[in-house]
Amino acid sequence: MKKILSIIFLLMFCIMTACTKEKAGAGPEFITFPAYEEENPAGLQYVDEINNTDEFQVSVSFPGTWTLKSERPDVGAVIPGDFYTPLYIYEEDALIGYIGFNKFEPYMGEIPKEQYYQTVYPSLRLSSLFFWDPYTAVNTTDTGETGVAIWYLDPEELDNHPGANAEVPQLNTVGILSYDTELKVYIGIAFMPGKIEREQAEEIAQTVSLLPAGEK
Q1: Secretion signal: which residues (predicted)?
Q2: Going edge to edge, which strands form the sheet with 56-60?
Q3: Average pLDDT of the chain, as a whole number
Q4: For the chain, where are the alpha helices, taking DSSP H only?
Q5: Which residues contact 67 (CB under 8 A, 6 or more apart)?
Q6: What percent of the chain has pLDDT over 70?
């Protein structure tokens, strides 16, 4: 009887361990940005600056079934955002979202710590076409912060933005933002609508950290 109970407990432990790994991933993944060189046929100075950004790493724990690809997916609408060299997140053939980065110049004036993110992401918070707001911090350090934001696109604003995709529907989903004032960069993880719940986004956000290249 004791032997049977031991086998049952062992099986239960293995199942629980497998579920945990499936949910949180086998361990942190280290993603280097810039992930590749952005094309710049117009010779724009800012794109050159993006391509010349000092390499840094994003440490994040994704579910073990997710993979990253650099090829832009063949879909009608990808979540807009002010990010460069995006890598697209898949679960098998299903697009989950993407992760990308941008640069910023740290604000040096006096401002409450809980409001500092507003100086980092103005283009994401104040756009008339789309915005990543409201924002909730989930992890704060001396040099940065990671938070979860609700992402919304207003299709009624498309007429005011020449070149915007007229087929883009109204979207409401969740994303992750993280910045570091020493590295002077921020990253965004945008999830396609309906792919994950806010709770899972918060769990992933808790694992995010930005590091200099080569540091683990």
Answers
A1: 1-20
A2: 29-33, 56-60, 209-212
A3: 83
A4: 2-24, 45-51, 117-120, 122-125, 198-205
A5: 89, 90, 91
A6: 77
Q: How confident is the model at residue 26 (pLDDT cuts 50, 70, 90)?
A: low
Q: Fill in the DSSP letter of residue 27.
A: S
Q: Calculate ∠ Cα 30-195-117, nearest 5°.
A: 60
Strand order in the sheet with 94-103: 66-69, 84-91, 94-103, 185-191, 171-180, 144-153, 130-140
Tokens in use for 121? 């992401």
Residue-wise over 101-124: b if at least 16 C-beta within 10 A, else e?
bbebeeeeeeeeeeebbebbbeeb
* pLDDT value, residue 75: 64
The position carrying tokens 């010779």 is 43
Among residues 69, 130, 116, 128, the alpha carbon closest in space to that of 95 is found at 69
The angle at the Cα of 81, spanning 66 to 180, to the nearest 5 degrees, equals: 80
Q: Which residue has the higher pLDDT, 130 or 146?
A: 146
CATH architecture observed for domain 25-212: 3-Layer(aba) Sandwich (3.40)
Q: Is the N-terminal amide bond of 34 cis, ω within 30° of 0?
A: yes
Domain boundaries in the chain? Answer: 25-212
